[in-house]
Every structure is written in C-alpha cells, then in structure tokens.
Amino acid sequence: MTDIAAPGLREQKRIATKRALQVALLRLALERGFDNVTVEEVAQAAQVSPRTFFNYFASKEEAVAAPHGPHELSAEEIARYEEGAGDPLTDFVVLMAGRVADEEDFELHALRRELMHRESRLLGDKDGLVQRIREQVVEMIAERLRGDALRAARMPDETALRDRAGFTAMLCMTIARHGWSRWVSSEGATPLGECMLAALDEFREIAAATTGSA
After folding, report:
1. Minimal CA–CA distance to 59: which of 115, 125, 130?
2. CA nearest 27: which of 11, 8, 44?
3. 40 to 43, 67, 113: CA distances (angstroms)
4. Would the pTM of this model clear 0.85, i.e. be above it?
5. CB-neighbour burial class of residue 82 (10 A; exposed 0-12, middle 13-18, buried 19+)
6. Which of 20, 22, 42, 151 has the smallest set of CB atoms within 10 Å of its CB?
7. 62: burial class by Cβ within 10 Å (0-12, 13-18, 19+)?
8. Are 122 and 63 in contact (CB under 8 A)?
9. Distance between CA atoms of residues 201 and 214, nearest Å
10. Mean pLDDT, consecutive 10-residue segments, the chain of 214 residues?
11. Which residues lie closer than 8 Å to 177 by C-beta, 6 or more apart?
C-alpha cells in the first residue's frame, strides 16, 4: 500500500470542522426534514459561523453529498501515479486505498444513508459529485496511458487511449465501490483501504478465471 503521511494539525482541524458541519446538518435534517433546516442552524450546532459553512460547502446539498475527507488528489499524488511502474488500474486502486483513512467514518455514512433513503432527491447531488470525480479520474488515467506509450517509444492513439482510460476508470470505481460495500457490511470494523485492496484481489481472481476459461 502507498504510504501517505498523516495530515498536519491545520488539515486535521479542517477535517474535524467539515465533519462537525456535516453531522450537524444530517442530524437536524433527520429530525426536521432537509428543507426545514437553515445554514445558520447548522453552523450554530457545529459551533462555527455561517461564513465558515460556506468556506467548506456551496450549499446544504453539497454538504450532504461531499465525502468526509478530501476527494481532490494532490499534485504529488497525481505525479506519483503518472510515473508509476505497475499497471494503471492496480496503481490507481492502491493509491485510493492508501488515502481513504479520512473516509472511515461509519457514523457519518449511516446518517447520510438514512437521510438519502428518506429524501431520495438528494441522490442526484451525490450522483453529480461522482460524475465529476469520474471525469477527473479519466483525465488522470489518460495522462498516465499517454506517458506509458511515450516511454515505450510509441505514438499514442488518442481515440483508443481515451476509450481505454474511460474503461479503466469505470473498473477502478467499480472495484472501489465493491470495497466500500465490504466496509459497510463490516460496519466499519475492517479498514476501508483494506476492503478496497481485497476487492482488487477479488477482481484479479475473477479476471484470471475468465481468461483461463476462454
């Protein structure tokens, strides 16, 4: 697994504040209904100012859908991935498994799941976030494939490269989602990163069995 340094004190404080806002919003929304909760009430419950809320989220909808930890990859992580020596799919899943410690918040997950079950229209905001993340992943994998081709002294076929990047991104996100499901089933008892790597191993076993039977 890729070694990721623990976040500094400032980042830890940011993560804690973001979580406090999300938990406050989710709990108030479950008590009163999402539309009956104001940003001011959420901020008060989290003991911060309304301005602080908008430093983290553009809206209540975004606060519900956003991951607990940072979902944007750092320039260092992107560079490390693009220069990786393994296969693009494995390297990306390992990268994600190494940085998901901030997502291991089963209480937050359970609150979000209950609210979205009650108010299914909020699922659209989550789907929008997932689509934006997928687009970022496709671009990152495409750059990695482009670099791999150039290092092998091949001229990249941009059409084929984009198709492969999209397919690889879809597989990566499917594996990550399966790992997430494993983590949920364990009610957070098994680390999320470990669950993602187990899902990757399961994918390899299925792919090997399918290839062997061809």
Report:
1. 125
2. 44
3. 5, 21, 23
4. no
5. middle
6. 151
7. middle
8. no
9. 20
10. 54 87 96 95 96 94 74 80 90 88 76 88 69 86 93 92 95 92 88 93 92 62
11. none
